[in-house]
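Q: Could you fold this chain for me?
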Amino acid sequence: MMIFKRTFAASLLACLALAAQKQAPGKQPAKAAPKASGPSALDKATLEVWVRHYFVWPAPIKIEIGDPKPGPIPDLYSVKVLGTMGTQMQEETFFVSKDGKNIIRGTAFETAQNPFKPQLDKIKTEMRPSFGTPGAPVVIAEFSDFECPYCKEEAKALRDNILKTYPKEVRVYFFDFPLEQLHPWAKAGSIAGRCIFKQSASGFWDYHDWIFEHQADITKDNLKDKVTEFAKSKNLDTEAFSACLASKEPESEVKETQEMGLALGVNQTPTIFVNGRRLAGVTPWADLKVVIDYEIGYQKTAKNAGEDCGCDVRLAMPGAPAATSTPGAIHK
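A: Sure. Below is the predicted structure, expressed as structure tokens.
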């Protein structure tokens, strides 16, 4: 805990005491409203100076300080601080006392609640590509970039192992998180993926595997031709595909998952969430399996994560994604 020091002048106290003695008999001195003294972390300029000193963040790093919001426990505000420099970012949450004099850096939990509930609340799975069993006790949300070589490695591990090892216990969702400043064609690749998903849910996973496999051969200039050729090879409606690429809808959907990722603190790819537990960077399959096995066992009694299949009884309509790709929600 970092504490801003409170100081009171002894002479001021003495003056107040003397003034009280000089009041006329029977009259009580008026009570003045308490005044804050010293710096306050609720003042954004003051908090910025404090944060820069704490993290050693020089001027080139831009700092955005959010407005104070009710904290997880009484008498504390929650304040988010975002530091950015180029493509790098770091978000921190500070808890500030209501008088602005005390700062806590950390995470507050309720013992009766899943510790990953804040993350689970932010992961929206509707109309996202997925594979695995509806209603599985473990949900993996993968934030990925088609141009990222590390994402290719993580994607292969998931595709090669999940269904083979966990035929009923795990469901995987894919979320686009193209790093546009680093990867020139990543966003266009995500948009193409959304357009294929609109025609065929299973076709998306063919595209997912194909684009990672051919990652080294794709450029910003040839991407459209290559993905159109891929669509033809899968007997998709290429006219509808081209019209989708030209529309704004898939781009807005990609932006939506980017914003979701930022809200979850995603700042690198790949990043996956296993029942809300964040694992950033490439996670070796052996390590990921340990986490999945633990969650499977834990959810047998806890039942506070995993997937709610949503009891969807809609008829499959021509051209609509398969029902197995549009479940209800994640348990929280």
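A (continued): The radius of gyration is 26 Å.
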